[in-house]
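Dear colleague,

Thank you for sharing your sequence with our group. We've completed the structure prediction you requested, and as agreed, I am returning the results in plain text so they can be pasted directly into your records. Please verify that the sequence below matches your submission; if there's any discrepancy, let me know and we will rerun it promptly.
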Amino acid sequence: MQKEAALFVYIDISNSRTIFQAMSEGTAILNDFADMLNTAYKDILITPFSIKDGDAIVGGVRDFTALLHIYSNCLTHYYSEDFKTSFKHLPAVQNETLNFYFGAGIGYIDTQSDNINIVNGTSIINAIEASNIAKTITKSQTNQKKSAVSNNENYFFAKQPFKFYCLADSQSFGNVITALFFLAFEQLIRSDKQQQLFRVKDEHPEYSNIEIGMEMGYNTLSKADISSRISVLMANSDYYLYTKVRQDIIHFLVDLQKIMKGAPND
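Please find the predicted C-alpha coordinates below.
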Protein backbone atom coordinates (compact mmCIF):
# COMPACT_ATOMS: atom_id res chain seq x y z
CA MET A 1 0.00 0.00 0.00
CA GLN A 2 1.26 3.43 -0.95
CA LYS A 3 1.98 5.57 2.09
CA GLU A 4 1.59 9.35 2.22
CA ALA A 5 3.87 11.68 4.17
CA ALA A 6 1.75 13.61 6.63
CA LEU A 7 1.75 15.93 9.61
CA PHE A 8 -0.76 15.20 12.37
CA VAL A 9 -1.38 17.37 15.41
CA TYR A 10 -2.87 16.14 18.69
CA ILE A 11 -3.96 18.89 21.10
CA ASP A 12 -4.94 17.78 24.59
CA ILE A 13 -6.39 20.03 27.32
CA SER A 14 -4.29 19.98 30.49
CA ASN A 15 -6.15 18.97 33.68
CA SER A 16 -9.50 19.11 31.91
CA ARG A 17 -11.19 16.99 34.55
CA THR A 18 -10.33 19.45 37.32
CA ILE A 19 -10.59 22.89 35.71
CA PHE A 20 -14.07 22.46 34.23
CA GLN A 21 -17.28 21.96 36.14
CA ALA A 22 -18.73 19.96 33.27
CA MET A 23 -17.06 17.96 30.51
CA SER A 24 -19.16 19.88 27.98
CA GLU A 25 -17.11 23.03 28.72
CA GLY A 26 -13.89 21.40 27.54
CA THR A 27 -15.69 19.90 24.56
CA ALA A 28 -16.93 23.35 23.52
CA ILE A 29 -13.39 24.76 23.65
CA LEU A 30 -12.00 21.87 21.62
CA ASN A 31 -14.73 22.24 19.00
CA ASP A 32 -13.95 25.96 18.83
CA PHE A 33 -10.27 25.28 18.08
CA ALA A 34 -11.16 22.48 15.66
CA ASP A 35 -13.50 24.80 13.71
CA MET A 36 -10.79 27.48 13.55
CA LEU A 37 -8.15 25.05 12.28
CA ASN A 38 -10.45 23.32 9.80
CA THR A 39 -11.40 26.68 8.30
CA ALA A 40 -7.80 27.91 8.13
CA TYR A 41 -6.36 24.71 6.60
CA LYS A 42 -9.29 23.32 4.62
CA ASP A 43 -7.25 23.19 1.40
CA ILE A 44 -4.53 20.93 2.79
CA LEU A 45 -6.43 18.75 5.26
CA ILE A 46 -6.00 15.01 5.10
CA THR A 47 -8.22 14.44 8.10
CA PRO A 48 -10.25 17.32 9.59
CA PHE A 49 -9.62 18.22 13.21
CA SER A 50 -12.13 16.50 15.46
CA ILE A 51 -12.48 15.42 19.07
CA LYS A 52 -10.75 12.23 20.11
CA ASP A 53 -10.60 10.56 23.53
CA GLY A 54 -12.96 13.15 25.01
CA ASP A 55 -10.46 15.88 25.89
CA ALA A 56 -8.31 16.28 22.76
CA ILE A 57 -8.56 17.15 19.09
CA VAL A 58 -6.51 15.61 16.31
CA GLY A 59 -6.22 16.35 12.62
CA GLY A 60 -3.79 15.95 9.77
CA VAL A 61 -2.44 17.97 6.86
CA ARG A 62 -0.26 17.10 3.88
CA ASP A 63 2.02 20.16 4.15
CA PHE A 64 4.68 19.97 6.89
CA THR A 65 5.23 23.73 6.85
CA ALA A 66 1.70 24.19 8.23
CA LEU A 67 3.06 23.11 11.63
CA LEU A 68 4.47 26.55 12.43
CA HIS A 69 1.29 28.30 11.30
CA ILE A 70 -1.00 25.91 13.18
CA TYR A 71 0.94 26.53 16.39
CA SER A 72 0.96 30.30 15.87
CA ASN A 73 -2.74 30.34 14.98
CA CYS A 74 -3.56 28.44 18.15
CA LEU A 75 -1.70 31.06 20.19
CA THR A 76 -3.40 33.93 18.36
CA HIS A 77 -6.83 32.37 18.83
CA TYR A 78 -6.16 31.64 22.52
CA TYR A 79 -5.45 35.32 23.24
CA SER A 80 -8.14 36.73 20.94
CA GLU A 81 -11.10 38.74 22.18
CA ASP A 82 -13.42 36.43 20.23
CA PHE A 83 -12.22 33.41 22.19
CA LYS A 84 -12.49 35.20 25.51
CA THR A 85 -15.94 36.49 24.67
CA SER A 86 -17.14 33.04 23.61
CA PHE A 87 -15.99 31.57 26.92
CA LYS A 88 -16.42 34.53 29.26
CA HIS A 89 -18.04 32.22 31.83
CA LEU A 90 -14.87 30.14 32.21
CA PRO A 91 -12.25 31.57 34.64
CA ALA A 92 -9.42 29.53 33.10
CA VAL A 93 -10.01 31.27 29.76
CA GLN A 94 -10.35 34.75 31.20
CA ASN A 95 -7.26 34.56 33.44
CA GLU A 96 -5.25 32.73 30.75
CA THR A 97 -4.45 29.68 32.90
CA LEU A 98 -5.88 27.18 30.43
CA ASN A 99 -3.06 25.01 29.04
CA PHE A 100 -2.78 22.43 26.29
CA TYR A 101 -0.34 19.70 25.28
CA PHE A 102 0.51 20.21 21.62
CA GLY A 103 1.84 17.03 20.02
CA ALA A 104 3.14 17.19 16.45
CA GLY A 105 3.63 13.91 14.60
CA ILE A 106 5.59 13.65 11.36
CA GLY A 107 5.53 10.38 9.48
CA TYR A 108 3.26 8.49 7.09
CA ILE A 109 -0.35 7.44 6.98
CA ASP A 110 -1.45 4.10 5.59
CA THR A 111 -5.16 4.86 5.29
CA GLN A 112 -6.57 8.26 4.34
CA SER A 113 -10.00 9.16 5.67
CA ASP A 114 -12.09 12.04 7.01
CA ASN A 115 -12.83 9.80 9.99
CA ILE A 116 -10.10 10.10 12.63
CA ASN A 117 -10.98 6.64 13.95
CA ILE A 118 -10.14 5.02 10.61
CA VAL A 119 -6.88 6.81 9.79
CA ASN A 120 -3.75 4.96 10.86
CA GLY A 121 -0.02 5.29 10.40
CA THR A 122 3.12 6.54 12.09
CA SER A 123 2.16 10.21 11.76
CA ILE A 124 -0.90 10.00 14.00
CA ILE A 125 0.84 7.61 16.40
CA ASN A 126 3.74 10.07 16.70
CA ALA A 127 1.34 12.98 17.34
CA ILE A 128 -0.41 11.19 20.21
CA GLU A 129 2.88 10.08 21.74
CA ALA A 130 4.35 13.59 21.35
CA SER A 131 1.41 15.02 23.31
CA ASN A 132 2.01 12.44 26.05
CA ILE A 133 5.69 13.38 26.19
CA ALA A 134 4.78 17.09 26.42
CA LYS A 135 2.53 16.18 29.36
CA THR A 136 5.33 14.27 31.10
CA ILE A 137 7.81 17.12 30.58
CA THR A 138 5.34 19.72 31.84
CA LYS A 139 4.44 17.76 34.94
CA SER A 140 8.08 17.10 35.86
CA GLN A 141 9.28 20.57 34.72
CA THR A 142 12.80 19.33 34.08
CA ASN A 143 13.98 22.60 32.58
CA GLN A 144 17.67 23.49 32.39
CA LYS A 145 18.97 20.63 34.53
CA LYS A 146 22.37 19.04 33.96
CA SER A 147 20.69 15.64 33.95
CA ALA A 148 18.71 16.61 30.82
CA VAL A 149 21.33 15.16 28.48
CA SER A 150 22.09 11.92 30.27
CA ASN A 151 18.48 11.19 31.24
CA ASN A 152 17.02 12.19 27.88
CA GLU A 153 14.89 14.87 29.51
CA ASN A 154 13.60 17.58 27.26
CA TYR A 155 12.50 21.15 26.57
CA PHE A 156 10.02 22.57 29.06
CA PHE A 157 7.64 25.17 27.56
CA ALA A 158 6.90 27.49 30.48
CA LYS A 159 5.72 30.69 28.77
CA GLN A 160 3.36 29.27 26.17
CA PRO A 161 -0.09 27.84 26.95
CA PHE A 162 0.52 25.21 24.25
CA LYS A 163 3.23 22.86 25.51
CA PHE A 164 4.95 21.76 22.31
CA TYR A 165 6.67 18.52 21.43
CA CYS A 166 7.39 16.91 18.05
CA LEU A 167 8.04 13.29 17.16
CA ALA A 168 9.10 12.17 13.69
CA ASP A 169 9.82 8.75 12.23
CA SER A 170 13.47 9.71 12.49
CA GLN A 171 13.92 10.85 16.09
CA SER A 172 16.64 13.38 15.28
CA PHE A 173 14.29 15.29 12.95
CA GLY A 174 11.68 15.60 15.68
CA ASN A 175 14.33 16.71 18.18
CA VAL A 176 15.52 19.49 15.86
CA ILE A 177 11.98 20.79 15.31
CA THR A 178 11.27 20.79 19.06
CA ALA A 179 14.53 22.62 19.74
CA LEU A 180 13.78 25.29 17.12
CA PHE A 181 10.27 25.85 18.50
CA PHE A 182 11.75 26.11 21.99
CA LEU A 183 14.25 28.70 20.79
CA ALA A 184 11.61 30.77 18.98
CA PHE A 185 8.75 30.63 21.45
CA GLU A 186 10.55 30.34 24.80
CA GLN A 187 14.13 31.60 24.71
CA LEU A 188 13.71 34.61 22.41
CA ILE A 189 10.62 35.94 24.21
CA ARG A 190 11.61 37.48 27.53
CA SER A 191 8.41 39.13 28.76
CA ASP A 192 4.63 39.10 28.39
CA LYS A 193 4.80 42.37 26.47
CA GLN A 194 7.31 40.94 24.00
CA GLN A 195 5.11 37.90 23.54
CA GLN A 196 2.13 40.14 22.80
CA LEU A 197 4.23 42.29 20.45
CA PHE A 198 5.45 39.25 18.52
CA ARG A 199 1.93 37.86 18.16
CA VAL A 200 0.59 41.16 16.82
CA LYS A 201 3.46 41.55 14.35
CA ASP A 202 3.06 37.94 13.18
CA GLU A 203 -0.66 38.41 12.62
CA HIS A 204 -0.41 41.92 11.16
CA PRO A 205 3.02 42.41 9.56
CA GLU A 206 1.74 45.49 7.72
CA TYR A 207 0.87 47.38 10.94
CA SER A 208 2.67 50.58 11.87
CA ASN A 209 4.01 51.07 15.40
CA ILE A 210 0.91 53.07 16.29
CA GLU A 211 -1.42 50.35 14.99
CA ILE A 212 0.57 47.73 16.90
CA GLY A 213 0.31 49.80 20.08
CA MET A 214 -3.44 50.24 19.66
CA GLU A 215 -3.79 46.47 19.24
CA MET A 216 -1.76 45.97 22.40
CA GLY A 217 -4.07 48.19 24.42
CA TYR A 218 -2.20 51.50 24.55
CA ASN A 219 -5.33 53.33 23.39
CA THR A 220 -5.24 55.97 26.13
CA LEU A 221 -1.78 57.25 25.15
CA SER A 222 -0.96 59.85 22.53
CA LYS A 223 0.20 58.60 19.14
CA ALA A 224 3.71 59.86 19.86
CA ASP A 225 3.84 57.94 23.14
CA ILE A 226 2.45 54.79 21.53
CA SER A 227 5.05 54.94 18.77
CA SER A 228 7.83 55.54 21.31
CA ARG A 229 6.78 52.61 23.49
CA ILE A 230 6.64 50.18 20.59
CA SER A 231 10.01 51.42 19.29
CA VAL A 232 11.62 50.83 22.69
CA LEU A 233 9.95 47.43 23.03
CA MET A 234 11.21 46.43 19.59
CA ALA A 235 14.73 47.70 20.32
CA ASN A 236 14.88 45.63 23.50
CA SER A 237 13.56 42.46 21.88
CA ASP A 238 14.93 39.73 19.64
CA TYR A 239 12.06 39.96 17.20
CA TYR A 240 14.19 39.79 14.05
CA LEU A 241 16.15 36.80 15.35
CA TYR A 242 12.82 35.23 16.30
CA THR A 243 11.67 35.86 12.72
CA LYS A 244 14.81 34.22 11.35
CA VAL A 245 14.27 31.12 13.49
CA ARG A 246 10.71 30.88 12.17
CA GLN A 247 12.06 31.08 8.61
CA ASP A 248 14.60 28.36 9.43
CA ILE A 249 11.79 26.16 10.77
CA ILE A 250 9.92 26.53 7.48
CA HIS A 251 13.03 25.76 5.41
CA PHE A 252 13.78 22.70 7.53
CA LEU A 253 10.20 21.40 7.18
CA VAL A 254 10.29 21.92 3.41
CA ASP A 255 13.50 19.91 3.11
CA LEU A 256 12.23 17.23 5.50
CA GLN A 257 9.09 16.74 3.40
CA LYS A 258 11.21 16.39 0.25
CA ILE A 259 13.33 13.74 1.97
CA MET A 260 10.32 11.79 3.21
CA LYS A 261 8.50 11.95 -0.11
CA GLY A 262 11.59 10.42 -1.66
CA ALA A 263 11.82 7.64 0.91
CA PRO A 264 10.94 4.15 -0.27
CA ASN A 265 7.46 2.94 0.66
CA ASP A 266 6.71 -0.51 1.98
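Summary note from our side: Strands lie at 4-13, 45-52, 56-61, 100-109, 162-168.

Kind regards,
the structure core
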